[in-house]
Amino acid sequence: MMDAIINFIMDAVGQRPVEIVAVLLGLINISLLIRRSIWNFPVGMVMVTLYGYIFLQEKLYSGAILQIFFFTMQIYGWLYWAKGLRANEANGDIEGTDGQQNNHQISREINNRNKQPSQNKPALEKIRVARLSPDEYIYYLAFAVLGVLGVGGAMMRWTDASLPFPDAMIAVFSVIAQFMLARRLLENWLVWIFVDMIAIGVYLYQELYPTAFLYGVFLVMAIIGYRRWCLHEETG
Question: Global pTM?
Fold first, then answer.
C-alpha cells in the first residue's frame, strides 16, 4: 500500500530532481514578487537557468531561448528596483530591509491609516507601482501579435519544436510581462495570468507535471499579486 502511494506521488510530482528544484525556486520567487521584495531577482536567476536546461530537453525551444531573456531581465530588474529603493530611501518613503517589518513599522502603518486623508503621509512600501498609458496598450498588443506570428512561424519552419505556436505565445507574452514587471507596471500581473493559463495546458500536454503544477500556483498567486499591487498603486 505504501509503495503504491509513493509511486503515485512520484508520478504526479515527477522524478526529475532538476525540475523539482526549479519548481521550488519558482514558488519562492513568486512569493517574493508578491511582497515586492528585490530578492526575487537572484532566486529567479537560478530558476530560469534550470528551466533553460529543462525546456531544451523537451524541445520547447522558444521556452529555452526565453530563459536567456529572463536571465537578462532579472539583472535589469534587480538594478532598476535597487535604483527605485535608493530613490525612495532618499525621500524617507520606504520600509526597512526586506522582511524586517518590526513592531515599530507596523505601528507607523496603523497610525497613518487612522489619520485624516489630508494628514496622510505616503504609505510605507518597498516599490511604487505604476500603470500603462493608453498608447502603451496598443504598442504592447502589436508587439505580442507580431512576436507570436514571427517566433511561432520560425520555430515551425526551422526546428522540430513540439508546439511551436503555443510555445511562442508563452515566450512572447512572458517577455512582455517580464518587462512590465521590471518597470513596476501593475498590468504585468494580468499578462502573467494569461501566460499561466496557456502554460498549464502546454506543460500538461508535454507531461511536465511539476511545472504544470507550478504554473497553476503561479496563476493563483498572480491573481493575488494583482490585488495586492493594486493597493500600492502610485496614484500621483
Answer: 0.66
